[in-house]
Amino acid sequence: MDFKRIVLGVTGGVAAYKAAELARLLVKEDIDVQVVLSEAARHFVGAATFQAITGHPVFSDLWDERVDNGMAHIDLSRGADAILVAPASADFLAKLVQGAASDLLSTMCLARDCPLLVAPAMNRQMWEASATQRNITQLAADGVAVLGPDSGEQACGEVGFGRMLEPESLLEALEAHFQPKLFEGLKVVVTAGPTYEAIDAVRGLTNASSGKMGYAVARAAIEAGASVTLISGRVFLEPPRGARILRVGSAQEMLTAVETVVNGADIFISVAAVADYYVLNPSEQKIKKDAHILTLELAPNPDILAGISSRPKPPFCVGFAAESENIEEYAEIKRRRKHLPLIVANDVKESVGSDVVQLILLDAAGRHVLEKADKRTQARKLVAHIATLYNARHE
Ligand code: C5P
User: Fold this and answer.
1) Which neighbouring-strand residues pair with 225?
2) Which of 4, 277, 354, 371 is the most exposed place for a label (fewest CB within 10 A)?
3) Is 0.70 topped by the overall pTM?
4) How distant, in Å, are the alpha carbons of 31, 100, 147 from that of 23?
């Protein structure tokens, strides 16, 4: 993690119980969590819960005598990497906008010397109220990061915007906050996962790609500030928050999707394991079993990446090469044949479906080894490498 210490502010709202889960997730990631409750939050959750989860005493009173110098509002946030207020009630957001210092949490936010993130949670009508919307605009202008809210079912029974982001999403958003914004303002298209070439109504040719690497790359690009379109084959993964997702089956569908979004893209990262062949005459009905040999006629698929990279003004194109032997040699041949500034070589026996992988980045300057690590870490390093090459090109 790129942060070590978080002050978790909790204000009054039903979602306060989810803050306990968030505290648990943070502690699991070895983050030191100091909880500060507003007076209203104490009507929803008890300090003992947070104390047990974080291992630290919980504060809510400006005049708490447990802080030696009587300066809880200063001491508690010093040394913190960020203050995250989750849930942030409509009332608390209004306090922040006013610069109110009427209780420990609001005073601490005013006296902070670290980033402030808020996760609003309230009834949809309260969220949509012009006063709240004004406050949100002002907070964003003041440099406060506003996470969510989400839309969905609410504790009050209504449905709409105002649900606090789920704890896992808040953890993701926190992590993203600390990533360098190397892709700020850039449009990135990522393909991921396998393609599926139909044989008949229920059967098809596909491969073992899990989509994990492509999804990690899309997420890392979002964290770096890009606006990302993720074109995904059939996988069992949650798409990263904030990605525009286009789901496809066959290589031809993937090609059509890429062609509709790639104009205007700055960077195209082709992580998908695209089938080399499609079935020439797939049957519309399920093929019945009989005693004869069944022959499938296969025809080559278009090379999506090569098609894009050979355009007169291509985006910055990055390919992946999963090989089982002569990894670097074969990857470099592909890099040259497909006119790519960068290709990412990996060992198919180790990488497909796995959570950790070694990557070798091959570009015009040579090779850069990213020693074995989880795919999220590798994706962030890859984004940093792409940013360096991209910026050198656009200087
Ligand atoms: O399949 P191959 O090893 O040639 O894949 C290398 C790169 O080309 C990958 O980035 C893959 O996504 C891309 N590719 C493609 N269309 C194909 C085959 C591969 O875009 N038909």
Assistant:
1) none
2) 371
3) yes
4) 9, 26, 16
Cα separation, 384 vs 361, whole angstroms: 12
Query: What's residue 68's pLDDT?
Result: 66
Q: Which amino acid is at 78?
A: R
Question: In which residue are the tokens 């040719």 written?
Answer: 205
Of 222, 244, 229, 237, the residue nearest 175 (C-alpha): 222
**Cα gap 276→194, rounded to integer Å:** 11
Report the pLDDT value the prediction gives residue 70, as an integer from 0 to 100.
66
Rounded to 5°, the CA angle 200-203-205 comes to 105
State both tokens at 391. Answer: 């910026």
**DSSP state string for 283-313:** -SSPPPP-SSPP---EEEPP-HHHHHHTSSS
What is the model's pLDDT at position 210? Answer: 94
Distance 204 CA to ligand 1 centre (A): 19
DSSP-assigned letter for residue 77 = T
CA of 395 to the centre of ligand 1 (A): 29
Tokens of 49: 């819960």
Please, what are the domains in the chain? Answer: 5-177 (3.40.50.1950), 187-393 (3.40.50.10300)
CA atoms lying within 13 Å on the CB side of residue 211: 23
pLDDT recorded at residue 62: 86
Cα dihedral across residues 81, 242, 382, 168: positive or negative: positive
Asked if 193 contacts 233 with a C-beta cutoff of 8 angstroms, the reply is: yes
109 is catalytic: no
Ligand 1 pocket mutation pick from 271, 274, 308, 346 by most atoms within 8 angstroms of CB:
274
Give the Å distance between the CA of 244 and the centre of ligand 1: 22
Instruction: State pLDDT tens for residues 74-86.
Output: 778 888 999 999 9
Q: What is the pLDDT of residues 192-209, one digit of tens each?
A: 999 999 999 999 999 999
